[in-house]
Amino acid sequence: MANMVDYLEWRGDLSFRTSGFNEVDNLLLAQLAYVDFEGIVSGEGSDTDISLKEASEIFWSEHDEEEILARVSMTKSAPFLMRKMAQTKRFRNIRLSWYVNDISDEEQSQFSVVCVTLPDHSIYVAFSGTDETIVGWRENFNMGYLAETPGQIKAVNYLNRIAEKTEDKIRVGGHSKGGNLSVYAAVKCAAQIQERIIAVYSNDGPGFKREMVESEAYQRMIPKIKTILPESSIVGMLLEHQEDYEVVKSSQSGIQQHDAMSWEVLGPSFVYVEHVATESLLLDETMKAWLYHLNTEEREAIVETVFSMLEEANIRTVDDFYGSKWKKVQELMRAKSKLPEETLHLFSKAMKLLWTEGNKTVKKTVRQVMKEKREGAKEQL
Known about the structure:
alpha/beta
């Protein structure tokens, strides 16, 4: 089925003046945030920018395809997508600026963003999702117990600063964690900036703690939030959402649907289905029940335990694990054996609780299905 590459082949010759900004454009621009623009796109505070065509040429003069294809990350397709975009009339002259790529082990934060200026002078602020670093993955889990993560704070500050340098309209978006950062920044930025925001795109981005989505500030921004999830969403169903969401058809299955390249496209829109898949709803219900049975201190302790084990096993990136899987499993087991008894007890309790809640959800679903079948049979009599 058709995806973003097909969209570029079909509609890449159409300018934004001929065919206005659409949801597929949003996802394409969100993917640019995954490209390493270090030394290519100017940093925050600079008055200079660069066209996508020029940025792509410099990037590919410094990187080769084999190096990028060897990576494990789902986001390795982003540089190839950028190259294809740079060859089209629609995207080649968009301007890139204010690139930030800030990874901090100390802050447990992986933050990356780039500002895209479109031909009508509106801007799209593209926040990156999680990269292949373990610190980036940890920040996702920290969302389960922190009031706000360092990345979320940086996202708000960045949006406030970029909005000061222009009076133009703003779109904010991102994929995965980038979607979460986009919504957070839009909800928490200055009120005068919120008025200039056209739309906020969360492309399979996780939600927030209940206090956040029930806040007055979040409720005010809901009309501008566009949340898009694949059928079998896992990441995007995490934590709480209150806004409506649309469900896009994917050519992949399971967690692979998180890969934006699998999202099906028709013309200027995605191909939508009516509902999120049953397995996603089951996982969502299970995870929420599990989290609400653990207090904040227990959630923090579990995250700390898991990632301290990864650190002990010297696993710094996803590639580290996949490069020598069995060896890393052995190292993880050794790291687990060094944990204090109290920590092991909490870890075991959490795993047992997760198993229990999963069984409850499955049984509840089976009962519901059986009930619907019985009611259906009665209607036929």
